[in-house]
Amino acid sequence: MNGPDLLNEHVGVLKSRMGTFYPGSHVIYRGQNLHEDLKDMDWLALYVFGITGRHFSQAQLRLMNALWSYTSYADVRLWNNRVAALAGSTRSSGMLGIAAALAVSEASIYGGPPMQRAVAFFNRCLEQLDQGENLEQCIREELARHRNIGGYGRPLVNSDERIQPLLNLAAELNLHNGPYLKLALAVEDKLLHGRWRMRMNYAALVAALGSDLGLNARELYLFVFPVFLAGMPPGYIEASYRTEGTLYPLPCDHVLYAGPPKRAWARSKANRAL
Q1: pLDDT tens across 88-125, in order?
Q2: Would you call 41 helix, strand, or coil by DSSP?
Q3: Which listed CATH number (3.40.50.920, 1.10.230.10, 1.25.40.10, 3.30.1300.10) goes with 112-223?
Q4: pTM of the full predicted structure?
């Protein structure tokens, strides 16, 4: 059934398996009482339970927490933090500025999308390896199709300061032996010893560790949504202390213009009459 009949079936009715608010009584969150069954959950555990419907061990939650905190950079030169800081400089509200900064975190070469591409590549690669193909062939096919591999290479430098601390923590928690992480490291080794010379970046590592934790592509995408959030409020606050509008001022002569040359505008008779 579709069309008007389907719509009519849902008029005035909202059925949800995820949650229901009973004012003055109780709140259901994924089938459990939020203030009784889930009252001892910390925020991260509740967040991933909301995404997945599953409970994770303390070691897994500690690793998930690190996936967020290890990339919480309070540097307003970064593309998304800059949005939050400019909001502070122009005296916009903090919530509006940080929401905008989170929105632009979904960039094609930063944030969630490269992790999505890395997950898709890892899944294709594991499937091809199971069918007898070799890893170098998987890499060559990916490069031929997309000209890059999600999660490998970095625009500024060909290394990532977050990789080793996160690998150390994963090893400490005994969460470093999953098939996705092994594949991610093997891909990096092939890229480094081939002609590509690309290292793994944070997107590939998060994609691998998240996949080994059992997160599917959509769950991982939603999980990494706040991954940069902790670095945004400091920049907003600092910029709001500065004189208004003094963050990244741009003189007109710094703008490179290649359009039509300067031209005179003839005043109309009506304007001359005024």
Answers
A1: 999 999 999 999 999 999 877 777 788 899 999 999 99
A2: coil
A3: 1.10.230.10
A4: 0.86
